[in-house]
What we know:
Elements: H1 3-12, H2 14-21, H3 35-38, E1 45-49, H4 53-64, E2 69-73, H5 98-109, E3 114-118, H6 127-131, E4 135-139, H7 143-156, E5 168-174, E6 177-183, H8 206-210, H9 216-231, H10 242-258, H11 266-274, H12 281-300, E7 312-316, E8 322-326, E9 342-346, H13 352-361, E10 371-374, E11 378-380, H14 385-391, E12 410-414, E13 423-429
Parallel strand pairs: 1-2, 1-4, 2-3, 4-5, 9-13
Antiparallel strand pairs: 5-6, 6-7, 7-8, 10-11, 10-12, 12-13
Bound molecules: zinc ion.
Amino acid sequence: MTVNEKSNSTARWQYLDRIRKTKGPFNDDDYDTSEEVLSMHGTQKILVIGAGGLGCEILKDLAMSGFRDIHVIDMDTIDVSNLNRQFLFRKADVGKYKAEVAAKFVERRVKGVQITAHNCKIQDFEEDFYMQFQFVICGLDSIEARRWINATLVNMVDDENPDSLKPLIDGGTEGFKGQTRVIFPTITPCIECQLDLYAPRAAVPLCTLATIPRQPEHCIEWAHIMAWEQEKPFPTLDKDDPEHISWLYKKALARAEEFKIPGVTYALTQGVVKNIIPAIASTNAIIAASCCNEALKIATSAAPYMGMNETYMQYQGDESIYTNTFKYAKKEDCAVCGNLPKPLQVDPKWTLQELLDSFATNASAQLKKPSIRTEDKTLYMQFPPALEEQTRPNLEKKLKEDLGLEEKQEIAVTDPAFPALSFRFFLKFS
Ligand SMILES: [Zn+2]
């Protein structure tokens, strides 16, 4: 570094340095402001998961907070509809990998930062990959991916090795609302402990869809669920195929006209069918900023960070502005960090199929491809095909009468989305 470059660099970080060099009332007594400690900042290796709306903001904020060694994972490519808020992308980037383009953009703008892009799924990496990072920041819109990384980081903790504990900072937004969470795996409540905050949206009863639709969404769901099944215009529904969405849109529109319901549009059809939640650029900016502030505080101890006491910050911008930071309790029956089975309310007259289906909508399970066994018996396995075939007849059988399941009996449920986990439940008959 030349003298000139060095003075530029000093000028560039003077405000950040002032925060780090000034001991405040909340700092520990032994808070160290020596050059040696200060110069360590930025050398920590950080992993960002997601290079979309939140991820673009997070990468920029981390680089501007002095972090210099950042990795980013995202399997997605850039779509033209991303350009309004994912500000690291330009029209010429459409079709390219998000992680790669975002990394290059931030590297160009912030000298000295190195961002390594991984254009793949988080599930493609093993534990040793995650072990190299000091902490992980998630800017994801998928609950499943969050649950996966959460379970992986909790499983990685080895009491003998303090470096195996990787703090997880998780940001999420939905329209004008958002949240930031900080998790110290095994020590503080994990994402799975808070799963019921993501309860699947209450389904509209089929009879409403079939007989008395009241809202444009009901007409779209009718086209999606009932008209498609009856008419099967294409062998399988591809929610990304405009021709398929157009078919649903026309069906929904005709039905809406019949019931004099206004508001069915192509965009709404796409939104309902694909479950799209509107993304707002400024909400992303606020949540990403709060995630990166926590990252900076954890990395430098410059100020107390979330995680140890308060773990959860919620931001609501839909009615004026409201934020609240609170402590979320750890659950003893959490499938990831707890050690007790969860109660599961079931009707003993249910068939095994009905029990299986209930896991998708159960707020504390949310499993799409469950396999079930008791301590001594396999009730149903999705894989391998031979075992599936062998256990399939059980699907028709009633839980108590045919399968002999009892009140308080424990069952274990697995799902290919979370290969490391076994969800334990004990039955409560209603
Ligand atoms: Zn947990």
